[in-house]
Input
Amino acid sequence: MEAKAITVQEKSLGEKVSSWPAATQEYFNELKMEMRRVTWPSKQQVQATTTVVIVSVFAFAAYFSLVDSLVGRLIEKLFGALAR
Output
């Protein structure tokens, strides 16, 4: 196989500046097309997932609080025993 050389032509500053509005317009047109393709969740789905997240956050907070207090007590007892 023969490797083909890829040449990149650099644009002048004037060409870059003059092509900017067209590129920006194309970006926003593509953005609008993509946003039309998005499948948005229903209100019930949003409420259900929000509830799951909030309950999970409180469950993890309780778990880590319990673990933190147990590890803290263990370290205090360890330091107390070593300090004698």
Notes: Residues 11-40 form one domain. Helices lie at 13-37, 43-83. The chain has a mean pLDDT of 89. The radius of gyration is 30 Å.
